Amino acid sequence: MARCSVCGKPAVYVNRAAGLALCQRHFLEYFDRKVRRTIRKYKLFRPREHIVVAVSGGKDSMALLHYLHNLAKRVPGWRVTALLVDEGIRGYREYTVKRLVDYAEEHGIEYHIARFKDYVGYTLDEIVRRGRELGLPYLPCTYCGVLRRYIMNRAAREIGATVIATGHNLDDIVQTFLMNILGNDWAKIVRLGPISGPASHPRFVRKVKPFYEVLEKETTLYAVIHGLYTGFEECPYAQMSIRWTVRRMINELEERSPGVKYSLLRSLETAINMLRRQGIGEPDEEEGLYSCALCGEPAAHPICRACQLRLQLGIMEVSPEKLESLPPEARRMAESALRLSEERSRRR
């Protein structure tokens, strides 16, 4: 059995890359130092903040909520609220919603639930089914990712958030880094830093990642120690994503060569600096150039991705008068999406 590198007691955590083993007490101290160092290093929070934690009910977001709730007790200017986006995935989301509600009510934390049904009129299950019926070329994760971000930003702004904290850990970030390389999507890589979003857009709520340098196995252990990891529910759509394959590949590499994940994070930071020097994918340029001509939300194009998807799915109506009043490029995009929806509907 491994022994704690600090006190010699039985270890609950081993980091082969660092040659480190820690007992429960010293692991929690190590975890706290690591997260606080990340917050200071990247200046994630200001002295006065309304921090809205994006909670899914999974281990990472529950760990983040627990950590920030307790840290905020030592920072008088911070207020912490939990926000969960309920996509309406049957057999999955109802369990994670219950986990958040139980925890928040036990600890006296304000929480809000924003439902797909309320914001876009359909659950994700209904959207996926409709997309398949129309033969649209999108995986469920595409609809979910675009609409979740859209709803998260709107809902957080509506409850007065000054910043959204997400539970993305180091593993999540390097997986997305490789996925963007595989997709030749270099502009998106710039947005993988610890702070994201067009700060200049009045409707965009800044997003931060306090677990940016924390491994998934560390957030998992933190959640287990604090009784936050009470079950494991997997999204039924998860295995359809390329992330599933990329995650397994990175974990296999880490097993063979400890430290690969940290090396990938450093490579990401190098790539971000190089891309920014080239003027590629700057957050203020790539995202937030526009206010969507249909919904008014921040957008990288005249019509935001959420509205484009809804038009293609045929679940968003635009009157002829509204269409005619749009700026030329926005009208072209809207007409293209509507035309695709009509063509697919005729083939059914």
TrEMBL record:
Superkingdom assignment: Archaea
Domain tRNA(Ile)-lysidine/2-thiocytidine synthase N-terminal: 50-130
Region spans: Disordered: 324-348
Domain 2-thiouridine synthetase TtuA-like N-terminal LIM: 3-28
Keywords: Transferase
InterPro entries the UniProt entry points to: Ncs6/Tuc1/Ctu1, Rossmann-like_a/b/a_fold, TilS/TtcA_N, tRNA_thiolation_TtcA_Ctu1, TtuA-like_LIM_N
PANTHER family xrefs: ATPASES OF THE PP SUPERFAMILY-RELATED, CYTOPLASMIC TRNA 2-THIOLATION PROTEIN 1
Xref: NCBIfam families: TIGR00269 family protein (TIGR00269)
Name of this protein: TIGR00269 family protein
